[in-house]
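Cross-posting from the modeling subforum.

Setting up a comparison between two proteins and wanted a second pair of eyes on the formatting. Protein 1 (sequence, then structure tokens):
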Amino acid sequence: MIKMMKKEVEKVCKDKNGKWTLFQFPNFPLLVWLGCVVISRLINDNGLSENISALGTIFLAIWAYLEITYGDSIFRKILGSIVLIAIVFNNFS
């Protein structure tokens, strides 16, 4: 049972070459999103802060799309899908 679970986890988290591909650094859209989050928290002007936050959300959506389309493992494709769905529901519901 444990060997079967390990095999399934490896199938989801490894790429076609057998490398673990949970994280990738640097990841430009994700770094821009993080920078926008930090900057929007530091700015006192509400309008500017909202615009920077929206820009960050756009870069997070770009990251999610890239993970869905070009992610090396099933885990990264699923993670990108979850993040994109969360962005849609958070901003359009």
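Protein 2 (same layout):
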Amino acid sequence: MSDILIISGTNRNNSYSIQLAEYYQSILEENGVKAEILDLSSLPEDFLFSALYENSGKNENFNQFQEKVDSFNKFVFIVAEYNGSFPGVLKAFIDGLEYPNSLKNKKAALVGLSAGDQGGALALSHLSDILSYMGTNVLAFRPRLSSLEKNFREGKFINRLYEQILKEQANSLISF
């Protein structure tokens, strides 16, 4: 089993979120920590109708995601800002998890990203509230990476401050 699960919080193909998840994974591995990525773009297409509410536990493909979450105690959520919050697919994914035990008493780090100047501040605030409600211990250090298309290219940061901030957060999460 790996130590940390990194959740790429969108189902958009070839997103910055998955690129940042891979980058974050490399930071953790440099620190001797095993990490896996859970890419929400690989969720079953019908999970909204076949895995939530009265259908909980009935979608074998979604159940694999549930089992993955259950096997970890630490998470990194890579969260893009969509329409002033985080992607709906991430909320639907969280809603599909068994409540309250899937995330209760577990630890999470949040990384926000956006094309604009806020770096996903609202997205992180909304997600933090939901995770806190679910009993997840959320690391206080929440980097917000703004204007990502100007600062991150071909899997590397042009802005060294962003690189430094993510490394600092990863070290905080490891000892959290």
